[in-house]
Write a structure and sequence with these properties.
- It is built from 20 helices and 18 strands.
- By secondary structure, the protein is α+β, with helices and mostly antiparallel strands.
- Among the domains are: 149 residues, Uridine Diphospho-n-acetylenolpyruvylglucosamine Reductase, domain 2, CATH 3.30.43; 117 residues, Uridine Diphospho-n-acetylenolpyruvylglucosamine Reductase, domain 3 (2-Layer Sandwich); 117 residues, Alpha-Beta Plaits.
- The strands form 4 sheets. It has a 7-stranded antiparallel beta sheet, sandwiched between helices.
- A hairpin with a 3-residue loop joins strand 17 and strand 18.
- It binds flavin-adenine dinucleotide (FAD).
- Flavin-adenine dinucleotide binds next to strand 3, helix 7 and strand 10.
């Protein structure tokens, strides 16, 4: 299939043959083993062989498949096990753990690759006529169970892989907008815009393997969201094919034409229809970029500095303030110093310790844009940071963070070989609640991880994605599963950790999710988030767009009662 360079290995992150380069970071594995309590004698969990995986039998879809072939061509309608397997789950720990253990109880019957908007219109019509369900699929990197169908749905299931719809349709450089197809992966978008001197400026950590359609459908956030906004702030017009017709919104700079349909369509996670085009705000490629790393004596100092900086108007394009635990991880994961750096490393550490940075909190900070403006912003921000006792480590660690930021997801696969449960959970809240939520979430995670696994594990957190009113709080955990656990038991332990994390966020005044979306994993909390009437209104809207409920029926707006966190509803 075209663009296989963006297709994940069936059992983990990224392409077959690319793995986390542990050898280049000699301090990291001993540190992870100790923190994750993975031990000297690892509970090595090899993954099953691909040939051992038994997919649920495909339903008889012959007449539907031949009608679809007439639309997109023979090679773009696939029912082989390889294609079905890579489209069955997303990429949360639970997804990857099931794949590695060969637990696949639901898979699409057919995978279809449309080549353009008209193909999608015909496919949606055919699905409706044949009583089939449709799940749009971008890169499959979602971590909330957004592309998984419920096992008990007896209708034929089509997954619509959007990767062939990967064209830049038009650019209006004067107005700084671009019309893009939704199957474009992150690097393809930047490659297409670069000759025009433009950038979209959306770089989630999953950038390489996720698509514009997936970003829009889940309300994704990129690392520079502080200046470019979340994806919902970037979109100005959309085309969405629903089972009852095509919705088109016009690309205007601003309007007062009733409720904002773009805002209703983003975040719909494939349950209203298929996004076939988006007009996006784009930006001049920044003239100047400044990445650096700062240290604060404590996370609390860093928090106070960021809060003041943002509210005084010195908004960095990127700010990721790690707590003390995550900062330790960052230092363990760095490439060993060489030459002069190595020579001064020991004395520098001693000096920092003596000055109160014994267990510091690191801030990765970036400013970008026109050179003069960027320098002024940086100057203003640094003056505030200095008041909060910052120590500027300079550009080199900031640059190396930038270079290696897309490597980290590979680390989870490495740790899972050793029986580790590893994943991330995220929320957002207002500044006045942020440190309180941080403390309660830390405590809740510490307790549940100990209870369910019997180990302490690693819990690290950072603040990122800044707003005048608040910020995103992001947790990463890694812990050995309870000794002797089967893969199913390890998944149960993870589900309980995730349940407690999400419950703590929602009951503590945080968002159900800042950017990971809802899927079925977060669905148990959606009514509390939107209110009973709010959720009912969205369901009524879905019913008017999709009366037969064929669009992603297991996802966000499924109405068959509360989902269980293990997805077995
Ligand atoms: C290691 C890792 C790091 C991550 N980092 C980030 C991050 O920094 N920021 C962030 O926001 N997220 C992040 N994510 C989550 C994930 O990458 C996002 O949710 C992303 O937006 C999903 O895009 P995708 O193309 O992979 O979509 P998929 O996973 O394929 O689909 C996600 C949802 O979008 C729907 N969809 C896809 N295409 C269309 C379409 N054309 N029309 C209608 N619906 C569609 C699907 O039906 C599904 O409901 C991360 C995930 C991982 C595993």
């Amino acid at each position: 299939m075209s663009d296989d360079k963006y297709r994940h290995k069936w059992w983990g992150w990224g392409l077959e043959g690319i793995e986390y380069d542990m050898d280049a970071r000699p301090s990291l594995w001993p540190w992870i083993r100790q923190k994750g309590e993975l031990g000297d004698d690892p509970d090595l969990r090899p993954r099953v062989d691909l040939s051992e995986i038994r997919l649920p039998p495909a339903r008889n879809t012959e007449s539907l498949a031949s009608a679809l072939r007439m639309v997109v061509g023979d090679c773009n309608v696939r029912g082989d096990d390889d294609d079905r397997l890579v489209h069955c789950y997303g990429r949360s720990y639970r997804d990857v753990a099931r794949l590695r253990a060969g637990i696949v109880d639901t898979a699409p019957d057919l995978v279809v690759y449309p080549g353009g908007h008209d193909d999608v219109v015909r496919i949606v019509e055919l699905a409706t006529q044949h009583g089939a369900t449709l799940v749009p699929f971008g890169g499959g990197t979602n971590v909330a169970g957004c592309v998984e169908r419920t096992a008990h749905d007896s209708r034929p299931g089509i997954t619509l892989d959007m990767r062939r719809m990967n064209r830049l349709l038009a650019v209006d450089a004067q107005s700084r907008t671009a019309d893009l197809e939704p199957g474009l992966f992150g690097p393809q978008i930047e490659e297409a815009l670069a000759p025009h001197g433009l950038t979209l400026g959306h770089h989630p950590d999953s950038y390489i393997y996720s698509t514009l359609g997936g970003w829009l459908a889940t309300r994704s956030a990129g690392t520079q969201s502080n200046v470019y906004g979340k994806i919902e702030d970037m979109v100005v017009g959309m085309t969405v094919v629903t089972p009852t017709g095509v919705i088109e919104t016009r690309a205007l700079p601003a309007a007062s034409n009733g409720p904002d349909l773009n805002r209703l369509l983003v975040g719909s996670e494939g349950t209203f229809g298929v996004i076939t085009r988006a007009t996006m705000r784009v930006h001049a490629i920044p003239e100047y970029e400044d990445y650096r790393m700062l240290l604060f004596p404590t996370f609390q100092d860093g928090f106070a500095a960021l809060h003041e900086c943002v509210q005084c108007g010195y908004m960095p394009s990127l700010a990721r303030l790690s707590d003390e635990a995550e900062t330790e991880f960052m230092f363990a994961a760095k490439h060993p110093a060489t030459g002069f750096q190595r020579w001064i490393e020991g004395p520098a550490k001693k000096l920092l310790k003596a000055r109160g940075y014994g267990r510091p909190a690191a801030l990765v900070l970036a400013f970008e844009g026109p050179r003069q403006l960027t320098l002024e912003l940086r100057r203003g921000a640094m003056a505030i940071f200095k008041k909060h006792r910052t120590f500027d480590l300079g550009a080199s660690p900031g640059e190396s963070w930038k270079e290696s930021r897309y490597d980290v997801p590979y680390l989870r696969d490495f740790m899972m070989d050793y029986g580790a449960i590893a994943d991330s959970f995220e929320t957002s809240t207002v500044w006045s609640n942020l440190m309180r939520l941080y403390e309660t979430s830390n405590e809740a995670l510490r307790r549940v991880i100990g209870d369910v696994t019997g180990f302490h594990g690693y819990i690290g957190s950072h603040i990122s994605h800044l707003y005048e009113t608040g910020a995103c709080l992001y947790y990463t955990i890694a812990v050995r599963c309870r000794e002797g656990s089967t893969p199913e038991e390890a998944i149960e332990q993870y589900s309980e950790i995730k349940r407690v994390a999400t419950e703590t966020f929602v009951s503590g005044g945080g968002a159900l999710s800042h950017h990971h979306g809802v899927g079925y994993e977060h669905r148990p909390w959606i009514e509390r988030e939107l209110s009973e009437r709010g959720l009912a209104s969205l369901r009524q809207l879905k019913e008017s767009l999709d009366p037969d409920g064929i669009m992603n029926p297991g996802g966000l707006l499924a109405s068959e009662g509360p989902a269980r966190i293990d997805g077995s509803d």
